[in-house]
Amino acid sequence: MPFTIVRNDITKMEVDAIVNAARHSLLGGGGVDGAIHRAAGPGLREECARLDGCDTGEAKITFGYRLPAHHVIHTVGPVWQDGRHGERRLLASCYTSALRVAAENGCRSVAFPLISAGAYGYPVREALQVATETIASYLAAAEDEPEVYLVLYGADVMSAARARFPDVQEYVDDVYTALDEAEAWRRKAYHLGNDMAPGAAAPSVGIGGRPSVHASAAKPAPAAEAMVSDAADILGALEDESFSEMLLRLIDERGMTDVQCYKKANVDRKLFSKIRSDRLYRPKKATAFAFAIALELDLRQTGELLAKAGYAISHSFKFDVIIEYFILHRHYDIFDINEALFAYDQPLLGA
Predict the structure, then answer these.
(1) Is 33 marked active-site?
(2) What's the CA gap between 324 and 215, in Å, rounded?
(3) Is 138's pLDDT higher than 50?
(4) What pLDDT score does 326 carry?
(5) pTM value surpassing 0.85
(6) How many angstroms separate the CA atoms of 61 and 248, rounded?
(7) Does the pLDDT at position 136 exceed 50?
(8) Which one-letter DSSP state was computed for residue 14?
(9) How far apart are the first and last CA of the chain?
């Protein structure tokens, strides 16, 4: 997937390059900067000493030394004052400068920390928004397709992610119908599904091999009647137009190119090629939802597209409920949706 949010220690990321939120001197400091220098060993500081520092918003590259990452890209974030001293512009420049340096040095996978959100005082909620918007904008315009990770750590980041979409929690509280733990584990494998090999048949219909939970089992959503929740509907959908055929038809109807669609869906080009080349290809549920978001389908159309892959929207999964909330509010920014899914510890779209 081109862009994903993960919870991890950035010094343990096995990528071509990790990004260091550095000081101007590039000689190490506290927080992420200090952790990266400690993990890399003295060779990193010795190389940084030859770089003559770095200005705010710019980026410079070194080797990774003892790190799993091959390189470290150092960028200096802005110190938060009051938001009226160019902080947002400078923070966005950190991400774009680092991505450009990565591309110039052949780095195909890059992991970022949340720059400036620590000792430099940038409000976490705003820093998270700048990071996701800037990375998404860069990838949309890029000719190459690097894998980009935003590595988050700590409860404050999770709280900030939830705070960006306060109405999501209210909607989840109203709609979500929790399963008992044993039933939830039994259904989990089918709910997420797997990208099937070309020509593979879809599994039996419904969550866990049974018909999907009907919308009436939960408190009704504003457009619950639009959900595809009956097993007969799914079986009928599978008998005619396939998922691949419906997807390609919708792309044409909306006047989109394939590239525009799979980039907007945050889906890898190779995966899209598999879907295009085999009419019986069955994607993961997260992938099917991602294309529904990219095509800006309403809830009924989303249910129809999911049915082509043998899935249904269910109020028994927070994953489905959160995505349903964004569709009902016609909020189709997949990176905002993924941010909300991450905050609730759910799989991400396009994954």
Answers:
(1) yes
(2) 12
(3) yes
(4) 97
(5) no
(6) 41
(7) yes
(8) -
(9) 6
Cβ neighbours of residue 120 closer than 8 Å, sequence gap 6 or more: 21, 77, 78, 79, 80
Task: Write phi, then psi, for 61 (nearest 5 degrees).
Answer: -115, 145
> Cα separation of 47 and 176, whole Å?
53
| Of 209, 153, 128, 120, nearest in space to 10 by CA | 153
pLDDT digits 0-9 by tens, 159-170: 777 778 889 988
What is the C-alpha separation between 141 and 122, in angstroms, rounded? 27
What pLDDT, in 10s, does the model give residues 197-218?
444 443 333 333 333 333 333 3
Catalytic residue among 16, 33, 233, 320: 33
Q: Which two tokens mark 260?
A: 């525009």
49: CB partners within 8 A, 6+ apart: 26, 27
pLDDT mean across residues, the chain = 85
Structural contact between residues 22 and 10, judged by C-beta atoms closer than 8 angstroms: no
Find out whether 305 and 288 touch, Cβ atoms under 8 Å: yes
Backbone angles phi, psi at 152, to 5 degrees: -110, 150
State the Cα–Cα distance between residues 219 and 204, nearest whole angstrom. 27
Write the CB contacts of 77 (distance below 8 Å, at least 6 apart in sequence): 21, 56, 90, 91, 94, 115, 116, 120, 122
Q: Phi, psi at residue 222, to the nearest 5°?
A: -55, -30
Please give the pLDDT value at position 104: 96
The bridge status of strand 71-75 relative to strand 59-63 is: antiparallel
Return the pLDDT at 1.
Answer: 58
pLDDT tens string 237-260: 445 899 999 999 999 999 999 999
Residue 7 near residue 63, CB atoms below 8 Å: no
Tell me what pLDDT residue 194 has: 55
Integer CA distances (angstroms), 198 to 248, 267, 277, in order = 17, 17, 9
Distance of CA 45 to CAs 15, 25, 27, Å?
20, 10, 6
* Residue 237 · residue 308 · CB < 8 Å: yes
Residue 276 backbone phi and psi in degrees, to 5: -65, -35
Q: What is the mean pLDDT of residues 261-283?
A: 94
| Residue 125 confidence (pLDDT) above 50 | yes
